[in-house]
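User: I'll paste a sequence; please echo it back and then give the predicted structure.

Assistant: Echoing your sequence first, then the prediction.
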Amino acid sequence: MDLRTDYFRAADEAAVQRVMKHGQQPPGEAFESVQTRGVDPTVSLPHLVAALRGEGSPVKDGPDRSVWPTGLQPWHPEAPAAAVDLDDPWMTGPWVVELSDETRDALAGIQRKRLPQLTSQWNRTDELKGVERIELMRLIHQLGVLARRAQKDGQHLYCALAE
């Protein structure tokens, strides 16, 4: 499944939840964003962050926490024992996760002179092998710009995932 993965910046999770609750537009359109497909925040993005930090492999797998949908996940141990509702927003999406400020800060440190090296390293990630190098380089640059603006304005980075 090739999910739409829109990375965006926002002041806080309350701002994100207001946009999601009203559902008039996706967060990738409501906030300044970098829109892409298949660049999963739990699988692909940690490889770029590891390359930025000079680490061989990702330190952790994924974002710190989910922002949308809200409420108890149906698979949570404290959730009521009931048949899984396939129409539940937890099952259908869209989903929004908040990236850690450490990830934001690492992305904010992307330097133009490192783009070719970062592109080569990130292109070795299995999930991104079919992506054109120029497209990856552009994406890395755009993520860096977005992260720097978020950092400067005291905002956080989020990723909206949708089919």
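The chain has seven helices and five strands. The radius of gyration is 16 Å.
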